[in-house]
């Protein structure tokens, strides 16, 4: 994809290469992407460094270049709920982009990461100017809403054991291997419980012969039985 070379300030090549890969920006043409890239900047994130906190003004959104960014509702003590974990190509902050309200979740790097920081005001201009872009963002936000509703349903009607079984199934490779990138505390936040409960659930599944665990490597021994547990 080529970009206008005269209308916009020089931008980094990695930004130009990354933006077309972002699902949220794929409906934009080269000229619009050039406008976005001209005001973008790359930010390197340390582990546990926050992109923003819940309640912060929605002046920026980010596209992940590398690493993982966790978007979560942070509660007291060990409690919280991970809304999503964004990886390369994913975008954080879409809902706040549209309604201009504060960010509803805290965005934090789970590991050393790089993100492209985008100007929310410019993107809002493009939403008005480009109906196709507006429709595309609307579809993505509806998808996020459906995922949130599904997560709420799981929290309401399924036990932590069932939710852990579903998490393992969703993250397993075709040969039944699961490489845990998250700690037990982070898994607990994603499935809506606490670390101690996740530990007991792992021991239960191992004791029942459904999986074998070695450090952060999981091997599913009985996928059919694990699916029954997940419900």
Topology:
Layout: H1 13-18, H2 30-38, E1 41-45, E2 50-52, E3 60-66, E4 69-74, E5 80-86, E6 91-92, H3 94-99, E7 106-109, E8 113-119, H4 120-129, H5 131-157, H6 160-170, E9 177-179, H7 184-191, H8 195-207, E10 211-214, E11 217-220, H9 223-230
Antiparallel strand pairs: 1-8, 2-7, 3-6, 3-8, 4-5, 4-7, 9-11, 10-11
The percentage of residues in β strands lies in: 15-25%
Structural Rg: 20 Å
- Mean pLDDT comes to 86
Strand arrangement in the largest pleated sheet = 1-8-3-6
What's the main sheet like? 4 strands, antiparallel
Number of strands: 11
Oligomer classification: single chain
CATH class of the largest domain: Mainly Beta
Please state the second-level CATH architecture of the largest domain.
Sandwich
Low-pLDDT segments: 1-10
Judging from the principal axes of the Cα atoms, what is the shape?
Answer: elongated
User: How far apart lie the N and C ends?
Assistant: 45 Å
The H-and-E topology, N to C, reads as HHEEEEEEHEEHHHEHHEEH
- In the CATH hierarchy, the third-tier topology of the largest domain is known as Jelly Rolls
Number of helices: 9
- Category from helices, strands and their pairing: alpha+beta
CATH superfamily heading of the largest domain: Jelly Rolls
Q: What's the domain count?
A: 2
Structure, described:
By secondary structure, the chain is an alpha+beta fold. The protein has 2 domains: 13-156, Jelly Rolls (Sandwich), CATH 2.60.120.10; 159-230, Arc Repressor Mutant, subunit A. The chain has 9 helices and 11 strands. A 4-stranded antiparallel beta sheet has the order 1-8-3-6. A hairpin with a 5-residue loop joins strand 4 (69-74) and strand 5. The chain starts with 12 loop residues before the first helix and ends with a helix.
């Amino acid at each position: 994809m080529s970009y206008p070379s005269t209308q916009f300030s020089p931008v980094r090549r990695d930004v130009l290469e990354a933006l077309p890969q972002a699902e949220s920006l794929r409906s934009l043409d080269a000229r619009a992407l050039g406008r976005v890239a001209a005001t973008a900047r790359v930010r390197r994130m340390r582990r546990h460094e926050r992109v923003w906190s819940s309640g912060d003004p929605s002046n920026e959104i980010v596209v992940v270049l590398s690493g993982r960014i966790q978007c979560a509702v942070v509660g007291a003590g060990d409690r919280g709920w991970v809304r999503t974990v964004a990886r390369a190509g994913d975008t954080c902050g879409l809902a706040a982009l549209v309604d201009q309200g504060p960010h509803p979740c805290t965005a934090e790097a789970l590991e050393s990461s790089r993100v492209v920081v985008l100007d929310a005001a410019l993107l809002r201009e493009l939403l008005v100017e480009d109906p196709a872009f507006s429709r595309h963002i609307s579809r993505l936000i509806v998808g996020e809403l459906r995922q949130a509703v599904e997560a709420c349903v799981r929290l309401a009607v399924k036990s932590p054991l069932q939710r852990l079984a579903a998490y393992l199934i969703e993250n397993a490779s075709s040969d039944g291997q699961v490489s845990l990138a998250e700690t037990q505390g982070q898994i607990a936040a994603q499935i809506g419980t606490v670390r101690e409960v996740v530990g007991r659930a792992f021991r239960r599944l191992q004791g029942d012969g459904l999986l074998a665990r070695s450090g952060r490597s999981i091997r599913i021994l009985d996928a059919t039985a694990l699916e029954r547990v997940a419900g």
